[in-house]
Write a structure and sequence with these properties.
Length: about 475
C-alpha cells in the first residue's frame, strides 16, 4: 500500500474529483486530501488555517504532492488576484515548510509562472483585465519578442501607468516567491519541483521569467527542478511519477497526424511532439518504439487545433484509427473538448482500453490520460484493479469531454443568462445521449447529477 497526500490547485472537479476517481481504480493506493470546502474557487481563496490543520493532523505518508499556489496565494486564480505583499506570503510559505518537512518521505511540489491571457475576459484575472487584458498581452509579447530578437518594438504602449504598475508588481512578487522555492530545492527540501507555464505563447513576460528561472536551475545545477508547459495536469503527472518510482512502464506514442507533430497547440509554446515527450517523461515513464507496455494514441490536429470554447470546431473526417492493444487516448484535435468523429469511432470499438481524455489544453489531456493508464496498468499488474472505478471515471470523462464540452457547452454559453438553469433544461437530453457511452463501457449508472460548480459554463461537475 502506497500512501499519498495531495493539496490540489483548487476545488474544480478536474483538480479534485478526477484525482479521487482515478486513484480508486487501484486498491493499493491510499490518498489523503483536505476537505474540498477548504480549497479555493473562482471567487474564493483556500482556507489556509484549515489546510495547515490538515497537514498537522496527517500521519507520515510516502509522498506529499502540493500545489504551492494553494498555500501561497489561496489557489491558481488567487495567485493572479491576491493583494497580499511579498513579505506576508513569504511568512506563510515558511510556516508551511516547517509543518510539512517531517510529514513525508518525499515532497513533490509545483508552482505556476503567472500566465498572461490573450483576451479581455477578467473572469480569472483582476478587474482591469476586461479593459486592458489584450493590450497587456500584446505589450508583453512584443516587448519580449523585440528584446529576444534585438529588433524594434512596434507596439505603442497606451496602458494606464497605475494599471501596468500594479500588474508588474504582482508578477514581480510571484517571481520572487518562485525563486525562494528554487532555494529550497537547492537545500534538498523537494524531491521534485515543477514551475509550470500556464496558458502561454511563444513570447511574453511569463516566457521570459521561465527562461530566467531555467538559467538559475542550470547555473545552480538543481536537478530536481524543472520548467514545464501546463498547469492542471501537473499534480496528476507527479502522482504518476510517485507510482512509477519502482516500476518501469514503456509507452509508445502513436499520432493520427504524423506530418503535423511540429505544430503548436493553442495556449502552449512547444510543439505537439515536444509536449507529448515532456508529459511522458514528467510522469516517470519511458518512451519506446517497440515492446511497449502501453500505446498512447494522440489524436492530433492536421493544420491548426480547434478550440471548442471559442467556437473553432475541428472535426476530423479522414482518420481511420487503429486502436492498438493496451492503448489509451489523448484527444487533442481540439482544445477544450472532444473530436466528435474520433469519439464515434472509439465508441464502436471493443472496450479494451486504458483511458480517454480531451479536456482543456493538449498538456492537460496528455497528463490526464497518462495518469489514468498508468494507474490501471499497475493495478492489473498487482491484482488490485477496480473495474467499476475505471468505468465510472471513463463514463464521467466521456460525458464531460464529449457530450458536454463538444456538444452542449456552446449552446449553454451562447444562450447566456442563468447557465445552471439552461443546463437543467438540457439535463434529460444529455443523460439520454449518455446511453451510447453506457453501452460502450457496459456501465449503467442509476443516477447522474450535473452542476456548474463555478457558476459558469466552462466546467461541469458530474456525480455518478
Amino acid at each position: 500500500m502506497i500512501k499519498i497526500a495531495l493539496i490540489p490547485i483548487d476545488n474544480r472537479p478536474i483538480c479534485y474529483d478526477l484525482i479521487k476517481d482515478v486513484i480508486n481504480i487501484n486498491k493499493d493506493i491510499e490518498l489523503f486530501m483536505p476537505d474540498i470546502k477548504d480549497l479555493g474557487g473562482l471567487k474564493s481563496k483556500s482556507n489556509i488555517k484549515n489546510l495547515f490543520k490538515f497537514i498537522e493532523n496527517l500521519d507520515k505518508v510516502d509522498y506529499f504532492i502540493v500545489s504551492l499556489d494553494t498555500i501561497a496565494y489561496g489557489g491558481l486564480v488567487a495567485s493572479r488576484r491576491c493583494p497580499e505583499t511579498f513579505d506576508e506570503i513569504k511568512e506563510r510559505i515558511e510556516k508551511f515548510k516547517s509543518l510539512i518537512s517531517n510529514k513525508a518521505e518525499k515532497i513533490l511540489a509545483f508552482s505556476s509562472i503567472m500566465r498572461i491571457s490573450n483576451n479581455n475576459i477578467n473572469e480569472e484575472e483582476k478587474e482591469y483585465w476586461s479593459s486592458w487584458g489584450k493590450r497587456i498581452f500584446d505589450w508583453s509579447y512584443h516587448l519580449h519578442k523585440s528584446q529576444k530578437e534585438n529588433t524594434y518594438n512596434c507596439v505603442h504602449n497606451i496602458i494606464p501607468s497605475d494599471i501596468l504598475e500594479d500588474y508588474l508588481q504582482t508578477r514581480k512578487r510571484n517571481y520572487k516567491i518562485n525563486k525562494i522555492y528554487l532555494d529550497w530545492a537547492v537545500e534538498g527540501f523537494f524531491d521534485t519541483l515543477i514551475l509550470s507555464k500556464d496558458d502561454c505563447a511563444s513570447y511574453g513576460l511569463n516566457v521570459k521569467e521561465a527562461q530566467e528561472l531555467q538559467k538559475i536551475i542550470n547555473e545552480k545545477n538543481i536537478l530536481q527542478a524543472h520548467i514545464k508547459t501546463g498547469a492542471d495536469e501537473i499534480p496528476l503527472s507527479l502522482i504518476t511519477k510517485a507510482l512509477l518510482k519502482d516500476n518501469k512502464v514503456k509507452i509508445k506514442p502513436i499520432f493520427t497526424e504524423d506530418a503535423s507533430l511540429d505544430l503548436i497547440s493553442k495556449y502552449e509554446d512547444i510543439s505537439v511532439r515536444e509536449c507529448t515527450k515532456a508529459q511522458i517523461e514528467l510522469a516517470g515513464a519511458q518512451i519506446t518504439e517497440e515492446n511497449q507496455d502501453l500505446a498512447l494514441i494522440v489524436n492530433n490536429f492536421k493544420y491548426e487545433q480547434g478550440d471548442l470554447v471559442l467556437g473553432e470546431v475541428v472535426n476530423s473526417t479522414d482518420k481511420n484509427i487503429d486502436f492498438a492493444k493496451n492503448c489509451f487516448i489523448a484527444d487533442i484535435n481540439n482544445a477544450n473538448g472532444s473530436d466528435n468523429n474520433f469519439v464515434r469511432q472509439l465508441l464502436n470499438q471493443e472496450n479494451d482500453f486504458f483511458g480517454y481524455c480531451a479536456y482543456n489544453t493538449s498538456a492537460n489531456s496528455l497528463g490526464c490520460a497518462i495518469f489514468c493508464a498508468v494507474v490501471k496498468f499497475l493495478a492489473l499488474k498487482n491484482n488490485s484493479y477496480n473495474d467499476f472505478a475505471f468505468k465510472k471515471f471513463q463514463f464521467i470523462r466521456l460525458v464531460d469531454d464529449w457530450l458536454y464540452q463538444a456538444k452542449y457547452r456552446k449552446y449553454i454559453r451562447e444562450k447566456g443568462g442563468d447557465f445552471s438553469q439552461t443546463l437543467k433544461e438540457k439535463e434529460d437530453e444529455i443523460k439520454n445521449n449518455s446511453k451510447l457511452i453506457s453501452k460502450f463501457l457496459n456501465f449503467y449508472p442509476q443516477n447522474i447529477n450535473l452542476t456548474l460548480p463555478w457558476e459558469r459554463s466552462f466546467e461541469i461537475r458530474i456525480i455518478v
